[in-house]
Amino acid sequence: MMDKYFKSSVFKDVIYFFFGAVFGRFFSVILTPFLAITLSPAELGEYDMIISTLLIVTPFMNLQLNEGQLLYSLKEKKPSKSIYTSLVFSILTSLIGSISSYIILEYLTYKYSFVVSLLIFSVSMWPIVLTIFRSKNQSFLYALFSSLVTPILLIYLYATPNFNIETVLQGLVLAYSIIIIPIILFNINKYNFSFELLKKIIRYSYPFIFNTLFWWIQSIALRYLLIYFDSIEIVGKFAVDFKIASIIIVISNVLYMAQQNNVFTLKTLNINFNPYILLIVLSLLIAITAPIFVDYFLPDFFLFNKSSFILIASAMFQGFAIFEGVKYQISFKSIILLKSNIISSILGVIIAIPLISIYSELGAAISLLISNIILFLTRKFFYNE
Q: pTM here?
């Protein structure tokens, strides 16, 4: 049975996604101390706020057509037409969003208005472009290109003496552009645009717009609450801890994506290992090794504490919830993903207000842990019902 699994396309996808994620995460882990050492905690907190805010805005820019495009391709077995239609429409909406953001930010005299507006376009187009490879079941190319942004950014920053927040944002725009532009040019002239097809793709994608939105609303709410009750510096500390814990979420997404590419053909969740045991073991390894890494390489301000360990546990339960989401893909009940996210996010923010006011970063970590436990349990509950 296991021999058959190791020879299957699911296992190959897991391997491709895993090495792509590990390669990208390796450089991301290098980037974290690099920024923490070079930028002040306040600057790191400001940078984290910018990135987190962008991730709330972008679902409305691209309408999560990457998810709709992928589901349409997997279910209808017609990836080529969906790629062109979603790509063209996403370019248009992302451009409108980018230009509108620049006008608004200029009016507000925001100091990073130009580079942030460029980054909005890049971040909005990024998932659309990467999903081209998943739609064509080209897992290797997806893993390859998805892992290149951070290495390019690191090279840019290494070549730039005395960099600051604006320099990092410029490096991100450059890194995304180097990958996005050639892929768009290669795919943009293949097929005709279809409004009817666009409607079908949007029907698949619309639950994911609010699913992603609520996920990031909670994340950004925690950061604003930390600023209100404590300081922007503590957001920088929270960002470093969250980045380390997110390794677990990355591995969870590897398992999720590998299964997603195959469940519509197999009509079942076909695996021969326990993902929960894997995530528990991974969480324990990170809890053991991360304190050594952080305490040795980073300034004293970022020392590992209770909040750091709780965020690792929180990420583990989020990983459980991500994997539970595959079941709803099989049964065509993506709307339940949205319901579970709404419940967990709203409750998480409500719980966070008193906790953060009393315990600061520890309160934020506890509220996120409770929220992700609720997310996992609600997905289990809805599925069993």
A: 0.76
